[in-house]
Automatic annotation (TrEMBL):
PANTHER family: OUTER-MEMBRANE LIPOPROTEIN CARRIER PROTEIN. It comes from Entotheonella factor. CDD domains: LolA (cd16325). The keyword Cell division does not apply. InterPro entries: LolA/LolB/LppX, OM_lipoprot_carrier_LolA-like. Gene3D superfamilies: Lipoprotein localisation LolA/LolB/LppX. SUPFAM superfamilies: Prokaryotic lipoproteins and lipoprotein localization factors. This is Outer-membrane lipoprotein carrier protein. Pfam families: LolA. Keywords: Signal.
Length: 218
């Protein structure tokens, strides 16, 4: 799903010990994330479309630069670039020769899943967070419910590796029962990323469609 773009890269989070309270854990997560300026990671994404009774698998690499820049580069099964920069969300599909473009207002940015990872908002302000049971001793699982009733998703589940302090996977649940599961690998942190990482070079024959609000899925 293209809308999930904004946010992968929860890496670099330090996980507190089991003795720490959830509130302490969130403070440590927020503090560690705030110290991470840029990162990149490979991802594999599986979207379970309940209404269509099928799954869609895709893969690529994600890049995040604070403040406020995220790029999802899909390579499988088809090329697609999803870019959030300067309050504008763009989805470029080369096969269609088309860009879908929408402005995300400052008041609405926290309503998009994981956008806080690009330096917008905080966990405690944007979500109600509770712990989930985990059958894996080295994994801490969290359930994040957006505080805003206008959010484009109902909840977000995170799986944190306690030893590496990285997010291994996340699952986004939407209002009609669809789920998008993303697993990360080959994560790297960076002092900064090249400026052209967040440029979108388009062929001259590309059609640009501007939408008042973003609702198109991948």
């Amino acid at each position: 799903m293209a809308w999930i773009l904004v946010g992968v890269g929860l890496c670099g989070w330090v996980v507190a010990s089991r003795a720490d309270s959830l509130d302490d854990l969130l403070d440590r997560i927020q503090q560690t994330y705030d110290q991470t300026q840029a990162l990149s990671a490979d991802f594999v994404q599986v979207a379970t479309l309940t209404t269509l009774n099928r799954e869609q698998a895709s893969a690529g690499r994600v890049y995040i630069q604070k403040p406020y820049a995220i790029r999802w580069e899909y390579t499988q099964p088809d090329a697609q670039t999803i870019l959030y920069k300067d309050n504008t969300l763009r989805i470029y599909t080369p096969k269609r020769k088309q860009v879908l473009q929408s402005v995300i207002k400052a008041d609405d940015r926290s309503n998009v899943a994981l956008l806080f990872l690009a330096g917008i908002g905080t966990l405690k302000d944007a979500f109600t967070v509770t712990s989930l049971a985990s059958t894996e001793s080295q994994i801490t699982r969290l359930r994040l419910v957006p505080r805003s009733p206008q959010a484009g998703f109902t909840e977000l589940h995170l799986a944190v590796n306690q030893q590496s302090a990285f997010i291994e996977s996340l699952t986004i649940h939407d209002h009609i029962g669809n789920r998008t599961h993303i697993r990360f690998a080959a994560l790297q942190t960076h002092p900064t990323l090249p400026a052209d990482t967040f440029d979108l070079r388009l062929p001259a024959d590309t059609e640009v469609i501007t939408q008042p609000t973003f609702s198109q899925g991948r």
